[in-house]
Design brief:
The protein is globular. By secondary structure, the chain is α+β, with helices and mostly antiparallel strands. The protein has 9 helices and 11 strands. It starts with 7 loop residues before the first helix and ends with a strand.
């Protein structure tokens, strides 16, 4: 038998490879230590800075550059209006496109405190229904986070399972001045191979006159969702944001007439979310694909017709952001027409991203 003798260079490379292999573990130790010790402010930033420095120093010693592979990401958001899941949820998931990553954000899954507690401790019925479909379709669950009626599930194809893990998660309450989680946001931060994806599912304050509360909701969630322990290559915000249209002169009947005539451009010029994003008051740095679908709220349950007791609006949205040197390629942004059990229509967005491997 011939024994191979490692040269000094080979031993050095082997040691660095083993360090790189355990870089994630070291990173998690620092992040989890900060969270478990409930340290905040300067102390939390110290833990985070050390974790990131370790990870970056190990990455910098790679002998070869990263290889980037295109991944397809499917985002779905739906306010389910306290309803039970229908028989078939498959149309929500975009499976015909064979996405690598699927994130589903739901709002108003539960209303009562009793239901909310059960959803937090146990698996809610919507998540169970989704899990059953995904298992049959060869997808693995990466993570789940719930807060009252806001639920987020993230899945990846089975072949990516060993390379996907949750770095951190967050629940941020904004209902009743931050005391209750009927409004707010939940987040999952996922390390996929060597890229970080953050998913934020949110339900912001409703009603025409609550614009400032919606802006405050976003700022609070964005500040508190715990980005200190991750480098966000890609960030996706989605949910029932509840932004409406400026101008009470645009009555429900007038909006319906303009929608029927296909005059969406004029209506969208009065969209609150687009306005505050462009002004930098909320969602600064985030982008959104062009909207070409009808307002997603409010529908008469069981029909495809707007309920004119409320002014129709595009309340359900998907926004995205890429870090410097990264790019999100928008593919599709549309309503999913298959469901009418809620007064909201589900919205889906499809993206291509480059994942470092």
């Amino acid at each position: 038998m011939t024994h191979h003798t490692f040269s000094s260079l080979e031993l050095y490379k082997k040691r660095e490879f083993m360090k790189m292999k355990h870089a994630k573990r070291i990173f998690y130790i620092y992040c989890n230590r900060a969270r478990k010790m409930k340290v905040f402010g300067k102390a939390r930033r110290w833990f985070a800075r050390n974790a990131i420095l370790i990870l970056l120093s190990l990455r910098a010693k790679r002998d070869e550059p990263y290889v980037f592979i295109n991944f397809r990401v499917q985002i779905t958001t739906w306010n389910v209006n306290h309803k039970s899941p229908p028989e078939d949820l498959t149309p929500l998931l975009g499976l015909s496109r064979n996405p690598d990553v699927i994130a589903v954000g739901l709002q108003e899954v539960a209303v009562s405190p009793h239901e909310a507690i059960l959803n937090t401790i146990l698996v809610d019925k919507w998540t169970r229904a989704l899990d059953q479909i995904m298992e049959k379709k060869a997808y693995a669950k990466v993570g789940n986070v719930a807060m009252v009626g806001i639920i987020l599930n993230v899945y990846v194809q089975e072949r990516h399972k060993s390379k996907a893990s949750v770095i951190d998660h967050a629940r941020v309450r904004t209902g009743f001045k931050g005391l209750y989680g009927n409004k707010g946001g939940v987040a999952l931060m996922v390390l996929l191979y060597e890229s970080t994806l953050t998913f934020v599912a949110a339900h912001l304050h409703p009603n025409d006159g609550a614009l400032e509360k919606r802006i405050e909701d976003f700022l609070v969630i964005e500040k508190r969702r715990g980005r200190s322990c991750s480098q966000e290559d890609y960030t996706f915000w989605f949910g029932d944001f509840n932004f409406r249209l400026y101008g009470q002169a645009y009555t429900a009947n007038k909006i319906q007439h303009m929608v029927q005539k296909g005059n969406l451009e004029e209506l969208l010029s009065r969209d609150q979310l687009t306005d505050v994003r462009q002004a930098g008051r909320a969602f600064k740095g985030y982008e959104e694909m062009q909207i070409t679908f009808k307002p997603t709220y409010r529908y008469t349950v069981g029909t495809d017709s707007h309920d004119l007791q409320r002014r129709p609006a595009w309340t359900d949205r998907v926004l995205y952001r890429a870090a410097e040197g990264r790019e999100v390629i928008p593919v599709q942004y549309s309503v999913i027409p298959d469901f009418s059990i809620s007064d909201h229509k589900p919205v889906e967005a499809v993206f291509l991203i480059a994942v470092a491997t």
